[in-house]
Amino acid sequence: MAFKKSIAELLAYRSAYICNYPECNTLTVGAELNDPDLKLKIGEAAHIIGEKPGAARYKKLPNGESNLIDNGIWLCANCHTMIDKNNGNGFPENDVRGWKKSHEKLISMLVKTHKSPVPLLIRQTENYELAQNIVNFMSDKGVFYLDVSYENPPHVISALDETRKEIYRLSRKIQLDGELKNIFTEIRKYAQDVMNETSSMNGNFDYQALDDLLRVMRRKVGRQLGVLRDRYGCDVSGSLSTITN
């Protein structure tokens, strides 16, 4: 038996019409662009504990409780099917309840703090993976956070060149996101600027001049990393976080 319409709608509202499965977070409602009178909805109110013997995660509940809101979770149709296959094997009750609790807590926080849910949705896109990949790549490059005295100047330039090439490679894979492509372009440009300035040193590196160039570059890169963190939900942690604005 399906949930009552009022309960299904309440689950959807409490979830902001976003699938509660943490590896999905798909938006489940939207516009049908070909007809202003139509809408798209791929979300469903799913049972945490199955109603009948043989159903996923079934256990006997007091009469009627299986269709109360406490036993419901909002999922996209694909995730609903996934968690109910094979009698729910791999998706125990406590895990599913945990998804619901965490998701509703997150949505409540976003509403109360006037923050955007966009990073939550972006995490499910290929563009997010590209953004996180470049953050991870830069995390391994001391040029972005180590004092210049700890690094050999030629290695600094080599690290910048490697970063510039990796950003160019990944930027070609960005799909339909001019803002992300611009962020990649800007970081690549900052690295190139330092390389251009140091090329005139002809191998006779002035440590103070190089340090000044890197400080400027890091401030600029830090601003872009802040956007990747706040707008795209990227994990900018460790030493790299020290330059993030």
Which labels suit this protein?
245 residues; mainly alpha; Four Helix Bundle (Hemerythrin (Met), subunit A); 2 domains; two-stranded antiparallel ribbon; 8 helices; 51% helix; 7% strand
Report the strand count: 4
Number of helices: 8
* Gross morphology: elongated
H and E string: HEEEEHHHHHHH
Helix content: 40-55%
Number of domains: 2
In this structure, how is the largest beta sheet organized?
2 strands, antiparallel
Placed side by side, the strands forming the largest sheet appear as: 1-2
Radius of gyration: 24 Å
Mean pLDDT level = 91
CATH class annotation of the largest domain: Mainly Alpha
| Beta-strand percentage range | 5-15%
Low-confidence stretches: none
Q: Judging by the overall fold, what is the CATH architecture of the largest domain?
A: Up-down Bundle
CATH topology tier name of the largest domain: Four Helix Bundle (Hemerythrin (Met), subunit A)
Distance N terminus to C terminus? 51 Å
Oligomerization status of the protein chains: single chain
Report the structural category. mainly alpha
